[in-house]
Q: What sequence folds into this?
């Protein structure tokens, strides 16, 4: 090959490299976070689901229990859910390494299912925002008549911004409406590992809403009560060490299957196999 030919091909290398990198670059820029990737899947799923009969799964607190969490994901998959809602605390510190492991488990186990994550107290806020998603978000499908509002109370309180966000989203929500946050409120039944700041305001917002259920995690077990006249469920049994003292409920590893049929929700705790 002559020197001129060498020069000509050398000039083509940058172009060839750029063409090779364009698909990779585009893929990394589209759906930067788990939330964005899941939102695209959610939009597709809502177009295929039956409006009068659909299911989603809620689970939480999978930190320090990868083997159990994998069981939870596999079990959730058998219900063909519209999406999976993780109630927070997917890792102990929420760092880059733990987050990468969490995302890898989702990709390998439930790649086709949208997964949305509530901000937990063990999460790293910077990493969460960059790789997982927003601290407050709303899932909505007019076709299914579905609204789910998730807010951040990971600092053991509900601040004005979150309360206003929740109130504004619920004020116009109709159909099957649900609310999620990580830490449960303090009540006569739930008097430990709970929050008080903003709890009274939350009770009032829920009481005046059309919400059919509010989901919490943080406490590593299952329990069900009412708050603001709304079914309130703690589902924190996706892998973390179970709390067997100081709290009412069932200390088992489990998932919560929510079936919405004819516009009404039914809640079913499903215990993980040994």
A:
């Amino acid at each position: 090959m002559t020197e001129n030919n060498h020069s000509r091909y050398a000039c083509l290398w940058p172009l060839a490299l750029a063409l090779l990198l364009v698909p990779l670059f585009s893929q990394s820029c589209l759906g930067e976070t788990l939330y964005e990737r899941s939102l695209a899947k959610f939009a597709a799923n809502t177009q295929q689901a039956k409006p009068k009969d659909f299911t989603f799964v809620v689970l939480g607190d999978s930190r320090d229990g990868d083997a159990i969490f994998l069981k939870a994901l596999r079990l959730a998959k058998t219900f063909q859910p519209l999406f999976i809602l993780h109630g927070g605390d997917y890792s102990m510190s929420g760092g880059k390494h733990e987050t990468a492991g969490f995302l890898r488990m989702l990709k390998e186990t439930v790649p086709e299912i949208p997964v949305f994550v509530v901000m937990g107290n063990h999460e790293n806020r910077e990493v969460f925002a960059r790789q997982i998603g927003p601290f407050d978000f709303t899932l909505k499908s007019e076709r299914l008549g579905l609204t789910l509002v998730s807010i951040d109370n990971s600092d053991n309180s509900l601040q004005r911004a979150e309360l206003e966000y929740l109130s504004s989203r619920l004020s116009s929500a109709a159909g099957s409406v649900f609310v999620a946050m990580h830490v449960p409120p303090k009540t006569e039944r739930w008097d430990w590992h709970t929050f008080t700041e903003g709890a009274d305001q939350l009770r009032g917002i829920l009481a005046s809403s059309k919400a059919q259920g509010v989901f919490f995690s943080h406490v590593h077990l299952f329990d069900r009560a009412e708050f603001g006249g709304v079914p309130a469920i703690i589902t924190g049994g996706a892998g973390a060490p179970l709390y067997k003292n100081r709290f009412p409920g069932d200390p088992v590893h489990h998932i919560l299957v929510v079936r919405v049929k004819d516009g009404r929700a039914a809640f079913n705790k499903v215990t993980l196999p040994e």
